[in-house]
Every structure is written in C-alpha cells, then in structure tokens.
TrEMBL record:
The lineage of its organism: Bacteria, Pseudomonadati, Pseudomonadota, Betaproteobacteria, Burkholderiales. This is Blue light sensor protein. It comes from the Bacteria. Residues 3-94 form the BLUF domain. SUPFAM superfamilies: Acylphosphatase/BLUF domain-like. One of its GO terms (molecular function) is blue light photoreceptor activity. PROSITE patterns: BLUF (PS50925).
C-alpha cells in the first residue's frame, strides 16, 4: 500500500514532564498501530517535531486531531509527500528527547530543529527532508 510521510513542528504550551511525554506516547501507540501509522516524535523541551507515516487519508485525519490538542500550539506542516518506504517501520510512535540524548545524530537533529523553528532551509533542502535523510543513513 502506498504511504505518505507527514512532518510537522509545533510549540509545547508548557514544559513537558517525562509523565506528559509518556502519556502522549501511550495514546499514540494505542491509536497508531491499528491505523497502520508509524513514526517518531522529537521533543527538545519547547518544540515538537513529529514524523507520521501511513496512508495519506489516515494521516490527514490524524493530523487534524493532533493539531487541535491543547498541549501544543502553532502547529505547522513541513512536509507531506508520498514515500517509497517507512523510516520508522518498527515504531507505532518512537520518542526522542533531543536534550537528553548523547547520540551521534544529536547535532544534526538540533540543526534541523533550529532550521525548522526559524523557517529556513539547510543547504537547498527543507528541514523536514533533512530530518528524513538523517534517518535514512
Ligand atoms: C505532540 C503530540 C503528538 C501526538 N501524537 C499522536 C499520535 O501520533 N497519534 C495519536 O493518536 N495521538 C497523538 N497525540 C494525541 C492526540 O492529540 C489526541 O489526544 C489523541 O489522539 C486522542 O486519542 P483518543 O481519542 O484515543 O483519546 C499527540 C499529541 C501531541 C501533543
């Protein structure tokens, strides 16, 4: 089945606690699995960046619901395009806290988040495409 990848960025309305984030992940896992949606949610303390992968019409409906969530605001789609494969095939919703993470991809991810926040491209590419490229490597 053909799938889309949708990436959006949003602003948390308050500092999210580990419990807040766990609650979001629990709901996402419960709902996304049966919908054939996979993805990853990046949180850097003040901003969310979420990658959602699945059938296009399912993603559109899911995004409309997520967008209305009072835990975040100023949600903006960065990317919504057909994809040949899933970047996160094993995750109904993976969570990555960018501030806590000592990973080799940390600097790249922070750069992508900064660019997304400032609405600027990285080289010739959008932040969302740059993000997806990081995970294809
Ligand atoms: C940053 C963020 C990401 C979210 N991601 C998802 C998601 O991937 N899937 C999902 O079902 N709900 C997600 N939610 C929660 C939804 O906004 C909404 O609360 C939930 O889908 C309601 O589910 P329910 O009707 O089963 O209670 C997210 C919320 C936030 C704040």
């Amino acid at each position: 089945m053909s799938i889309n990848q949708l990436v959006y960025i949003s602003q948390a309305v308050r500092k999210m606690s580990p419990e807040d984030l766990a609650a979001i992940q629990e709901t996402a896992k419960k709902n996304n699995g049966p919908l054939d949606v996979t993805g990853s949610l990046f949180d850097n303390g003040g901003w969310f960046l979420q990658v959602l992968e699945g059938p296009a019409s399912t993603l559109d409906k899911l995004y409309k619901k997520i967008e209305l969530d009072p835990r975040h605001k100023n949600s903006r789609i960065l990317y919504n395009e057909p994809a040949n494969f899933r970047t996160f095939p094993r995750w109904s919703m993976n969570m990555t806290n960018l501030n806590d993470r000592q990973a080799d991809k940390y600097d790249e991810l922070v750069e992508v988040l900064d660019a997304a926040q400032a609405n600027r491209k990285i080289g010739s590419t959008s932040p969302a495409v740059a993000l997806l490229k990081i995970f294809k490597n």
